[in-house]
């Protein structure tokens, strides 16, 4: 007789990072471990019956299926001629923890409904010094706010921040998970997390007394946004700062980092930290599976991508709550002598100290969402064609802005995986300038309609006297060049991006 076991989180709520932890850590009553997991998620897109819905498969290491597997799955979908429906299955109450058994055509089948948070909370407590974070949260001078945007992170926020760390319930915003995310867009950025942004003193009608620390999660809790009082931390800076402070602030990393990695569009802030700390460094295509390969080979401890994803080798997914706890750990460490008296070291202080030491990568991303797919492809083809004559490109640039450096090289990013030797081509169009500035153009396909063009603009400033400028002001010459170079308005009809981060 064959016995199959299927596990599901209580009430059907499991965050993407928690799924990875369950696959990697959870052992069944019979000693079995999961071979993989299906995640049903809208990710960071609007969800509900009339919005996005995705099916994602994670492998036995807890990470997203690699391209070799997803390509085979896609090829198989082309040959499907029929499908079968299992009728007469008993209802399983997924609100009640326990195992339900019934017989199927191949033998007994068990459904194990388990506490969605217990494995994940246990893992977080093995990584971070919860007592140090508790002391920070208990400090009268410290306050924080966490916004789950009505996504699945809400199922973990109360358990971790309130029950384990002693925060007040009032610290939590939108932490009741809803099927349609309350009608909102669960993408943790300055555009969509309006309530948190206002509370942190950055909105059009900001709160007069913002908390010291704020954070948001996306729909499936793998992305994060970190804010200080009236201060936004870019995801590119966030991963660099976590890497720079991990060894002294987070017990899990006390013996050192194996290496660090970032996605290609992410700013080079992490590169500078890696060089300074003499760490292995990797630049990979967008997609967490590339980080997973490095981690499985013991080459990478901390990684991140500019699209609000940060994580480490504790699992094989980006992890929004992990990133928040990492920042809380850094704040707790920096303030270990200030909790009873004196002024707290703030999020803004930590970021500016980092810039003073490593330099600042002025950085922004323009998203043009739901662009006509044909127009988007024409724009990208135009950018590739331009790369064949850098002389013409630089002539065009000087005609737009004489104060912008020349392009030194341009290409379509290609990555050869150092672990399995696989090659990923056409991962983004790059223009690399002589002064270290970069323009990167990518098409993103995570939405359900049209195409999203992402434009990344970056400029490095090492002079500490010049690291305090407004980011959009500092980048405005490069923005102007990027829009003219790409003929953005001509191809897309858009005179402004949908989102600026």
From TrEMBL:
Gene3D superfamilies: Alpha-D-Glucose-1,6-Bisphosphate, subunit A, domain 3, Alpha-D-phosphohexomutase, C-terminal domain. Coiled coil: none annotated. Keywords: Carbohydrate metabolism, Glucose metabolism, Isomerase, Magnesium, Metal-binding, Phosphoprotein. It comes from Lactuca virosa. This is phosphoglucomutase (alpha-D-glucose-1,6-bisphosphate-dependent). Catalyzes the reversible isomerization of alpha-D-glucose 1-phosphate to alpha-D-glucose 6-phosphate. The mechanism proceeds via the intermediate compound alpha-D-glucose 1,6-bisphosphate. This enzyme participates in both the breakdown and synthesis of glucose. Residues 11-83, 119-227, 236-337 form the Alpha-D-phosphohexomutase alpha/beta/alpha domain. GO terms for biological process: glucose metabolic process. Its cofactor is Mg(2+). Monomer. InterPro entries: A-D-PHexomutase_a/b/a-I, A-D-PHexomutase_a/b/a-I/II/III, A-D-PHexomutase_a/b/a-II, A-D-PHexomutase_a/b/a-III, A-D-PHexomutase_C_sf, A-D-PHexomutase_CS, Alpha-D-phosphohexomutase_SF, PGM. SUPFAM superfamilies: Phosphoglucomutase, C-terminal domain, Phosphoglucomutase, first 3 domains. One of its GO terms (molecular function) is magnesium ion binding. It is an enzyme of class 5 (isomerase). Belongs to the phosphohexose mutase family. Its EC number is 5.4.2.2. GO terms for cellular component: cytosol. It catalyses: alpha-D-glucose 1,6-bisphosphate + L-seryl-[protein] = O-phospho-L-seryl-[protein] + alpha-D-glucose 6-phosphate; O-phospho-L-seryl-[protein] + alpha-D-glucose 1-phosphate = alpha-D-glucose 1,6-bisphosphate + L-seryl-[protein]; alpha-D-glucose 1-phosphate = alpha-D-glucose 6-phosphate.
């Amino acid at each position: 007789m064959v016995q199959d076991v299927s596990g599901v989180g209580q009430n059907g709520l499991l965050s993407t990072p928690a799924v990875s932890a369950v696959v990697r850590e959870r052992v069944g009553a019979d000693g079995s471990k999961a071979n993989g997991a299906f995640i049903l998620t809208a990710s960071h897109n609007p969800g509900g019956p009339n919005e996005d819905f995705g099916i994602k498969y994670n492998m036995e290491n807890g990470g997203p299926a690699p391209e070799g597997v997803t390509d085979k799955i896609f090829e198989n979908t082309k040959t499907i001629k029929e499908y079968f429906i299992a009728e007469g299955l008993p209802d399983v109450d997924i609100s009640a923890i326990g195992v339900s058994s019934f017989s199927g055509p191949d033998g007994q089948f068990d459904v194990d409904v388990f506490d969605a948070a217990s494995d994940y909370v246990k893992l977080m407590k093995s990584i971070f010094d919860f007592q140090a974070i508790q002391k920070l949260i208990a400090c009268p001078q410290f306050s924080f706010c966490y916004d789950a945007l009505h996504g699945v992170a809400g199922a973990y926020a109360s358990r971790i921040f309130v029950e384990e760390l002693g925060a007040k319930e009032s610290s939590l915003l939108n932490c009741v998970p809803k099927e349609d995310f309350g009608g909102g867009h669960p993408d943790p950025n300055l555009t969509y997390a309006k309530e948190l942004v206002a509370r942190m003193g950055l909105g059009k009608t900001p709160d007069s007394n913002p908390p010291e620390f704020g954070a948001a999660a996306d729909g499936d809790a793998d992305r994060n946004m970190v804010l200080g009082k009236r201060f936004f931390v870019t995801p590119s800076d966030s991963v660099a700062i976590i890497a720079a402070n991990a060894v002294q602030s987070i017990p899990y990393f006390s013996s050192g980092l194996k290496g660090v990695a970032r996605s290609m569009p992410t700013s080079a802030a992490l590169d500078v930290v890696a060089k300074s700390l003499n760490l292995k460094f990797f630049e990979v295509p967008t997609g967490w599976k590339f980080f997973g390969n490095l981690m499985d080979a013991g080459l990478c401890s901390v990684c991140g991508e500019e699209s609000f994803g940060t994580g480490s080798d504790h699992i094989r997914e980006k992890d929004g709550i992990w990133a928040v706890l990492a920042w809380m750990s850094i704040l707790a460490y920096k303030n270990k002598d200030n909790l009873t008296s004196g002024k707290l070291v703030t999020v803004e202080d930590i970021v500016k100290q980092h810039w003073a030491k490593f330099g600042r990568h002025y950085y922004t991303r323009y998203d043009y969402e739901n662009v006509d797919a044909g127009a988007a492809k024409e724009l990208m083809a135009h950018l590739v064609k331009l790369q064949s004559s850098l002389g013409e490109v630089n002539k065009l640039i000087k005609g737009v802005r004489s104060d912008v450096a020349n392009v030194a090289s341009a290409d379509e990013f290609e990555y050869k995986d150092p672990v399995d030797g696989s090659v990923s081509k056409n991962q983004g169009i790059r223009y690399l300038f002589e002064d270290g500035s970069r323009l990167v153009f990518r098409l993103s396909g995570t939405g359900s309609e049209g195409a999203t063009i992402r434009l990344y603009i970056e400029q490095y400033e090492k002079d500490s006297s010049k690291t305090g400028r407004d980011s959009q002001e500092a980048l405005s010459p490069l923005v102007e060049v990027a829009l003219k170079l790409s003929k953005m308005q001509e191809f897309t009809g858009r005179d402004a991006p949908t989102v600026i981060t």
